[in-house]
Amino acid sequence: MHDIEWVKRKGLPASLELFTVAEAASILGVSRKLVGAWIREGVLPAVRLGPGQRLLRIRRSDLEGFIARYQIVPPSQRVRPEEVEGDLGRMAGVRGSEGEDVGR
Asked: Are residues 36 and 67 in the same domain?
């Protein structure tokens, strides 16, 4: 389950709950820069608010749709390269059980 659950705001429908780029990045487990790139590319919808429309916000419903559409794995459930066995682990430079470098 994504960390989006702990940031629920009571009394608002999902379409009115807004996240900053930093909050969205934290929920997705990626950098703010990557979230900004997704917004610029139109992959992740965002709204502009405030004077000069300088503030970017992501609707909760859009963030949930993005997570579902692209099957984003929550950071707490991601596998680190050193935990991967087989070809993927070797490509990541993972050391074997005897300490030998199996990736190179």
From this structure: yes
